[in-house]
Input
Amino acid sequence: MTVAPDAKRLSFEDLDDAVRALREAGLRLSTSRRLVLEALFRTDGPVSAEQLATGLGVELSAVYRNLETFERHGLVRHVHLGHGPGRYMLVGGGEHEYLYCERCGATRAVDPPQLDAVRDRIAEQFGYQARFTHFPIVGTCPACRDN
Amino acid sequence: MTVAPDAKRLSFEDLDDAVRALREAGLRLSTSRRLVLEALFRTDGPVSAEQLATGLGVELSAVYRNLETFERHGLVRHVHLGHGPGRYMLVGGGEHEYLYCERCGATRAVDPPQLDAVRDRIAEQFGYQARFTHFPIVGTCPACRDN
DNA sequence: ATACTTGCAAATGATTTGCCAGTGT
DNA sequence: ACACTGGCAAATCATTTGCAAGTAT
Output
């Protein structure tokens, strides 16, 4: 259901790259951290902590702790797609912003520049600096609109 | 609970009006329902179920059940402002859409037409029909942006 | 060696649900 | 009278936290 944008340029090309970043941040490479990182590299959409935990046989709380650590050091971030658990992903060279269909759950990821017109309009009218990285634009997708 | 697109649009000036709407929906006017309705009329912004419950001495679960009932019948709706509990409000005359500051929690309610330009832009570019009633536009408010 | 991490269990916050006594119509 | 509703307790879901045992450096 999640559609990635065309230009998918990650700043961490591979696991070794991410591991180096971890090390530079003074963090240890524990087994579960490596497993979670590997899984994130192997996954191409936002994943829940639960999905990671069960898929890897790592304790859920450890996964949350890992993700939080990675997030604190800029390797990972998460998005809240409607109700349900947060979805985590590697931080790439560019962030993505999201559009979410409340009806069917379809998630569309877009590159931030594509939303600049929208963002500018909002800034102009209300002075708010909008970001759709942590909380998406919520609405109805084309398919659901046509029922 | 997601607001159904075919939910009836109700408009009521005061408690009696709302009570009439309740009755017409075939619902009973129990003590806790009356108390919750009264509290909603006397409250200006979106309130959490917890705030209602403690302020009224009504069981939290009953408040949730009341709110859900009201929502099912189009008297009430709720918005998710960042993390934290859902915030409930009367549907009353017209809907509002929200802008939320992730930094300070500031919430700005706007009349839907004010967001039509933004909405149109999003529809044009992505085909999504955006609504900021259930989930707000999230970002940084003017005050926080100027630090 | 020792500081950091995990597994496990229990706590937390938000919300839901089962059950039975009580109340609105 | 009867179905509907509230109080209360327990369950659920997502996430966090405390602690003792295990592991990376």
